[in-house]
Amino acid sequence: KLTAEQLAGLAKGSGNAWNITSAGTDGLTQTAIVKDIVPPSGAEKAYKITAEIGAVAAAGQSSSTIEVVYEVTPGAAPSNYNINAFLDFYNDLNMSGGIELKSTEDQRIKGLDFNVDGDFTAGGTGVSGDGIRNISVTGNISVSSDVKAKLLKGRNVKLTGGSMAEKIEAWGIPFGEDGSKGTETSSVGGHTCCGIVRLGSWDKNIMPEVRANGEVYGTGSGAKTIHARKTVDLSSDGAYESVNSLVDIFVKDIATVPSSKTLDIHAARNVTLSGDKVTSVKAGGNVSCSNKGIEFLITATGTITVCVLAPGSSAPTPVVSATIPEVPKVELKRPTVDTWKLKDAANYAIELIDGRVRVTVKNVNGLADGFYYIGTYAPEHKREYLCKAVLATNKTQCDPTETAKKSAFPFCTNGSDSDKCFEFDPTVGKKTMKISGTTGSFALPPGVIWFDGDLILATGPYFNTIIATKNITSTADLFTYALNYAAAYDNKTPPSNAVCKNEYKSPIVPAYLGRYPKNYCSSDGTYTPNALGNIALIAGGYDPADNPDITKPTVYSGGTINLTAKNEVFGTIVAGDLLRTSGDTTVHGYVSAAGLQLIDSASNVVSAKTTIDLTNLPSTYKPNEIPNMGGGGTGTIAESKVLWTRYL
Fold it and tell me: Is 63 in contact with 91 (CB distance < 8 Å)?
């Protein structure tokens, strides 16, 4: 279990006992003393650790000592995975509620991205806040509300509401061209047609730059510049300054902003004009006008029909086409989310087995590693404990003998002994657990909680990284903190440590004092973060029972995180499949929904107000960093073996 740094730093010499176990096998007192450490050299990875292991009989009548040389290769996890954007959705995103970003000045300067691998449909109050750099969408964008970003980019873009994007781009391949598939409105994955932008109405002071591989249709406020590789058709009182096309341009009843500016038009083929503003036109084909009383400055390769020419006009005169580069395709790579690979990293791994609730405890100070069970001492008490054995006749009741009680540990501090935290679905083959915490402090001891099945969370707060192999649903008002967030945050200045020192507002839970996760906390209360601790909620994975060849899994289970009622989540949310919100939700961190069920018709749904607040994040928390669950990287499996032994 030791890292390379810990192995190299082991204390040597007879005064430094590596491990002492009293009352060991047959009443022996056992000792182990590190005598020598040889670090690896060259391409080697293993340390050679020489130790003297001794045993003394209880009565002191005999003893024995052996020398052992171990070859120890420290484990190394694969490199961590960085989430691509502060909102990172795979499958469609339907948004009838609003999304608001709260960011710091530094984040606003650098910019934060928002990805959708599918169609993005936005109504409600739209997307607001400062700091959104790119909204990149592999499918269609249809917005009927305000969206604020530097770049709004999709296969096709339709804006019928407000938009404050500085740039709007459509990357689709126009119909009939090599590589074009499907139709403009198709929502089936894999279609690339048609690169169309449809501009509606918004504040006329907002003048975006528009680029499209296909057509541009304007029936509203307009744009500062338009660069289209296909036809541009503009009508109504829109405001435009520069319009360029590699095909035809139609301009009807168009104003300019400001009114003193010239509307410059440059088409590789034909231009059709109407309106009452002075216009500069370049056309590689013909130009026709419907208003005989307006002068136009026209240069055309072809003929000019029914137009009053301003001084300087010229036809036929060769016109070179404008240079309009293609808008590159949006391509996103979904993360691998497999909670089964996180089981060994859990401090409390909970499973429903044969009517019992078994908990594998690991790296918890004051508790020996091993199997425990969740049970009560009913009927007097309903509060749950971790106990070493439950009754055969009642598998949710701990062994009540005094000897067994000595090793039991309170696993719920929900109010009083008459309250409980856990509910389990007794249906055979159905794995569901509900956790309810109502103490006002925190219900469970801090650490990583892993559950095999569907998890329902209520109230809180929880100071835990919470993992479910299937789905997670919130009910009532949920408040939960990822470990890395909880380690250095409450409402005090300077912040205290709620993970290692059991400090969060008040009251302190006496039962949890000293019950900290040893893989995150040192004995003096110093907290050491890792990537898993950045996650508040994570769901979904490749169940080994459903995937005989787990090296090439094909069946994905769960992965939906459904947030109802009111939610405040301090940490990153990772849904292996979909995110759905129907309650007022605030997330102090990133959100990723990986769509690993691979169902094209499934959608992420934001139907209530969702706030992403990235201000005042603690230094121990990195919102974009999660464990690499894809099996890639250059990880090393930890190994320890005996090279030789001898009696001394």
Answer: no
